[in-house]
From TrEMBL:
It comes from Alkalicoccus halolimnae. InterPro entries: AAA+_ATPase, P-loop_NTPase, Signal_recog_part_SRP54_M_sf, Signal_recog_particl_SRP54_hlx, Signal_recog_particle_SRP54_M, SRP, SRP54, SRP54_GTPase_dom. This is Signal recognition particle protein. Involved in targeting and insertion of nascent membrane proteins into the cytoplasmic membrane. Binds to the hydrophobic signal sequence of the ribosome-nascent chain (RNC) as it emerges from the ribosomes. The SRP-RNC complex is then targeted to the cytoplasmic membrane where it interacts with the SRP receptor FtsY. Its EC number is 3.6.5.4. Keywords: Cytoplasm, GTP-binding, Hydrolase, Nucleotide-binding, Ribonucleoprotein, RNA-binding, Signal recognition particle. One of its GO terms (biological process) is SRP-dependent cotranslational protein targeting to membrane. It is an enzyme of class 3 (hydrolase).
């Protein structure tokens, strides 16, 4: 996950000030020296760092902090607010045109993840917004690109418009929009050609497509692993083409995250989505506020809850919530939850979003694949009803009996019980955080 190193360092630098009942100018200065180094080390653009540090200092030694009852925490709040603003402030949503279809042009360098992101975005629009997207293959130079998009279309059961590689990209794009109108598709996502470097011919061609189809969005796809280069690329594309938004890809990798933090300040254009993996469902709407909280170790409960909500059966969720509140969680619920978590994605990623979750060692080793679930099921089914409902009765001889009955070994039984306890803890934390934090919907 991106930002891991930065996140750790920032939290470290804020530790001292956090609990202080009195904060001096020197305290703020000391903290900001460390914050500055942490940001530079994460490859954040130095001008951006300078401005950020000055903005925080100015506010943190001002009245709003000094006069408050909890100055230490007030400083952290300022850092959080300024980081949110650096990342773009308010969430910037994808355009919806008043006349259908909405045309989105995908641009970016080769290898940035353009084609993959086109598929992800199409899926996101259909799954989360009930839209009907058409993907158009306008990259006629990379022979595999058209095929790649067509394969993606088949996998996702999504229409793809292509005319082979002998037709000009301008014509493909124009015809794709006409086709979408005819078929009542409400989005057209045009996958354009990339090059290894910013190149005049490419820019000319993109400009021609833009003039021909008048897109509602020109989304620049940038690879966050390329660090400062990503920021330069974004500046170049914006100057030459006028982009409307950015998709940062590969934020799941071990990038230091600097590009994602600088790109909005440097180009003035918002990050609209973040690519969090190679799979088609690994695209998240970018929420500056949530990302800032995640970086500062305050967790990202809202994204987690949203993820959970798309996978959860309403009645079961209500019952579960009641049980969590009253601490009545049983092993049967645990099994049920695991099957649902399996559909949400890797546990490690989910844990990243939770405040304080890094301390839950037991959960980290929890694999949720079909085989593991079958093993866990065998263990749970070997328990008596009493044991499933009241796990505290599980003593050594009962555990041995369960191990024998399920054909698993005693260590596995012990591990499962430990994980169950961790999950209980996690659930308790989640219900606590969920209270009063929900916000309105809309296009994300
Ligand atoms: P294009 O040349 O810009 O169309 O790039 P592709 O869509 O072919 O992607 C290049 C490579 O990056 C592929 O191997 C993708 O699977 C990978 N990729 C794209 N987005 C992400 C992402 O968000 N995370 C990770 N880990 N890999 C990604």
């Amino acid at each position: 996950m991106a930002f891991e190193g930065l996140s750790e360092r920032l939290q470290g630098s804020m530790k001292k000030i956090k609990g202080k009942g009195k904060v001096s100018e020197q305290d703020v200065k000391d903290m900001m020296r460390e914050v500055r180094l942490a940001l530079l080390e994460a490859d954040v653009n130095f001008k951006v760092v300078k401005k950020f540090v000055n903005d925080v200092k100015e506010r943190a030694v001002g009245q709003e902090v000094m006069d408050s009852l909890t100055p230490g925490q007030q400083v952290i709040k300022v850092v959080n607010e300024e980081l949110t603003s650096l990342l773009g402030g308010e969430q910037s949503k994808l355009a919806v045109s008043s006349k259908s279809p909405t045309v989105v042009m995908m641009v970016g360098l080769q290898g940035s993840g353009k084609t993959t992101t086109t598929g992800k975005l199409a899926l996101h629009l259909r799954k989360n917004h009930n839209r009907k997207p058409l993907m158009a293959a306008a990259d006629v130079y990379r022979p595999a690109a058209i095929k790649q998009l067509e394969t993606l279309g088949k996998q996702l059961d999504m229409p793809v418009f292509s005319m082979g590689d002998k037709v000009s990209p301008v014509e493909i794009a124009t015809k794709a929009v006409e086709q979408a109108k005819e078929d009542h598709q409400d989005y057209v996502l045009i996958d354009t050609a990339g090059r290894l470097h910013v190149d005049e011919n490419l820019m000319d061609e993109l400009d021609h497509i833009k003039t021909a189809v008048k897109p509602d969005e020109v989304l620049l796809v940038v690879d966050s692993m390329t660090g400062q280069d990503a920021v330069n690329v974004a500046e170049n594309f914006h100057e030459r083409l006028g982009i409307t938004g950015i998709v940062m890809t590969k934020l799941d990798g071990d990038t230091r995250g600097g590009a994602a933090i600088s790109v909005k300040s440097v180009t003035g254009m918002p990050i609209k989505f973040a690519g969090m993996g190679e799979k088609s469902d690994a695209l998240e709407p970018f929420h500056p506020e949530r990302m800032a909280s995640r970086i500062l170790g305050m967790g990202d409960m809202l994204s987690l809850i949203e993820k959970a909500q798309t996978n959860v059966d309403e009645d079961k969720a209500k019952e579960l919530e009641r049980k969590m509140r009253t601490n009545e969680l049983t092993f049967d619920d645990f099994l049920d939850q695991l099957s649902q978590v399996k559909d949400m994605g890797p546990i490690d990623e989910l844990l990243q979003m939770m405040p304080g979750a890094s301390k839950m060692k037991g959960m980290k080793n929890l694999q949720v694949d079909d085989k593991q679930i079958a093993h866990i099921e065998a263990i749970v089914k070997s328990m008596t009803k009493e044991e499933r409902d009241t796990p505290s009765v599980l003593n050594g001889s009962r555990k041995r009996r369960i191990a024998r009955g399920s054909g698993r070994n005693i260590q596995e039984v012990n591990r499962l019980i430990k994980q169950f306890d961790e999950m209980k803890k996690m659930m308790k934390q989640m219900t606590g955080m969920q209270k009063g934090k929900k916000k309105g919907g809309g296009m994300k």
